[in-house]
Amino acid sequence: MISNIVLTTGLLLILIGLWGVLTHRNILRIIIGFSLFGTGTHIVIVAIGYVTNGTAPILDRTLSLSEASSRVVDPIPSALVVTAIVIGMAVTAIMLAYTIRLYDSKKTLSIDALMESKW
Amino acid sequence: MIRSLFTIFAIVLLGVVFATIAVSYSEQQSLRPLAESYVQLVPRDLGAANVVTGILLTYRAFDTLGEVAVLFMVAASAGLILGTRQRRPEERGEPAQEAARPSSEIVQTGSQILAPLISIFAAYIIMNGHLSAGGGFQGGAVIASCVLLILLTYPEHRINVEFLSITESLAGALFVLTGIVGLIAAGGFLDSHILPLGQFGAFFSAGAIPILSALLGVKVGCELSVILDRFRPQP
Hints:
Chain A has 119 residues and is an all-alpha fold. Helices cover 70% and strands 0% of the residues of chain A. Chain B is 67% helix and 0% strand.
């Protein structure tokens, strides 16, 4: 049940992000749209890994090895998302760096000012 | 007009696809075979209590190395894109911006108290990656948040980018070297069995995973700090 809610939230975030990327003309807002898109994807991946009544895949006093297989969530999506978050942050940094350079040369943040490479 | 129609069409179409996914999705009742074997193998074979860290730093460590390479590339290209930027506005003959006020005493004192605590917390997260929630990536991000706090409090403070670059390169080289030692002394590249597994749940356990975690944390922290520094106006 809970993973259905989280999955729907993630898919909605992806849609909102895509809508922001496609409709806005300000580069900073487009970058925010990309961030929402990425965050939504992370939430969807984590939601897929949820197992009913599962707990974090960390063994300690309350979670012994013998019962681990029946009580933990899928660790693989979590492992993928940990790296994806850092890479998403790095990609955002590159987009912002390009934005700074574009603003230096065009003095505007609107993508309507960038028509050179439009066919 | 046509473009906004196209946008609405694309969003609606994707929304229909997502709606079918969300409606037909049913929660997993038990682990898939691959996940189940990881959950059993990581504590038994690697001696790590945190299954996610075991996967990240041994079974999928080559992936992690690739991610770190991507991060290095981003730090380098942020320097390339922003490094040749024109100087401050006043040097381009434009009206000089008002010099920023120094941050207030409350902010300065707060950050002086918080910065060491955040650093210690980052070290804790990095070094306990194999025992509890945490690991190199997360701890590195916490280090970068400490650097960001210092940069926000003292905007004129120059961080030593050369030191960070050398530390980061050294950590990366040692990470690869540990991997090559695994190739010689254990089962393969980045195999963590080059050190004894130790007692399960102890601080020094899980083979080379704490070492790899520490190197990864230092590397990620340095790279993110360098990226943060690139975004400031260069002197």
